[in-house]
Amino acid sequence: MSTEYASAVAAVRAMESTLLTQADIDRLISAEGFREAAEILRSCSREAPDTEEEFHKMLDGELEQVWEFISGYVGDDTGLELLLYRNDFHDLKAALKALMMNTEAEELYLRPSNLDLDALSATVRAKRWDDLPPYMRECAAEVYASLSSNMDGQLADIIIDRACLSQMIKAAEKSGSEFLKEYAQRTAIFSDIKTAYRMSLMNKTEAFISIALCGTSAFDASMLARAAAAGTDNLLGVIESCGYGEAAELLKTSTAQFEKYCDDRIAELIETARMTSFGIDPLAAYYISKETEIRNLRIIFVCLSCGADKNIIKERMRMLYV
Questions:
Q1: Model confidence at 68, in pLDDT bands (50, 70, 90)?
Q2: Does the pLDDT of residue 150 top 70, yes or no?
Q3: What whole-number percentage of the chain has pLDDT above 90?
Q4: Where are the domains of the chain?
Q5: Higher-confidence residue: 248 or 276?
């Protein structure tokens, strides 16, 4: 096994100790509002601004800091870049739609990103697709052509989302990391299930659904599209028969619980990566864990502001790394 990233893994191991524990999360959920929750967070040696607006801005920047930390130890083209693909393709989507609507996209961009966001809008306005990273050039040209001919925003969305998943799978295969391969597959599997179910509810045609699906190791895109076009009961039966019975049951009862199920199944992968002493897997696992922590903090603080029931908050918590 390569020792190339030994120093990076050692640094990540030290940073893991700063992640919130389940006990920390339970204390935050028990708080009686923003101020008390902020005080609890500070007691965990974490920063917590005095206002909710500043708090959410702080969370916006935390993943950027984590990415900069990891990037300081590794070079380009390691495979870790795929962890940002969803942000990258979201930003492309925002830039293309802003071009068609003659508006600005900068405030819609998500970070961290592999893209040069200072140049993205100008690149898209000039239609310089070759200036984009190779993994999104074809998609950008296809979506621009589609929007130019029919202004169908939904079609543009599904083309971009499908391309993102496909490119994640390709990048994971290229990386040679079993962890990233499984991460990309699970991400695509759950996305395809969700998309197929949503389009089945909307009574979309098989042809349209086929365009939206990536296709994975678990579900052939044409099979899933055919099942979705035949109705939700038929689709859920196919999902269950392919070994995703729990996902099918949750789709029937709670979209929120289905989303949590998907996130938790991906989080389960992290334990394997934690046992690895070298390579990029522990770095990817730490980044994903930090994503989960930030998602949990957002859920907690938003729910506390709304006065949500504590049991509801607990039900929405994602599985933690530590």
A1: very high
A2: yes
A3: 73
A4: 1-79+279-322
A5: 248
Instruction: Give, in order, the Cα–Cα distances in Å from 4 to each of 7, 10, 142, 174, 270.
Output: 8, 12, 39, 17, 20
Nearest Cα to 103, choosing from 115, 92, 94? 94
Q: What is the pLDDT of residues 5-36, one digit of tens each?
A: 888 888 888 888 889 999 999 999 999 999 99
| C-alpha to C-alpha distance for 154 and 250, rounded to whole angstroms | 25
Average pLDDT in the chain = 92
Q: Say if residues 265 and 188 touch (Cβ distance below 8 Å).
A: no
Q: Which tokens is 239 given?
A: 């999902």
- Please indicate, yes or no, whether the overall pTM of this predicted structure exceeds 0.85: yes
CATH of domain 1-79+279-322: 1.10.132
Percent of the chain at pLDDT exceeding 70 = 98
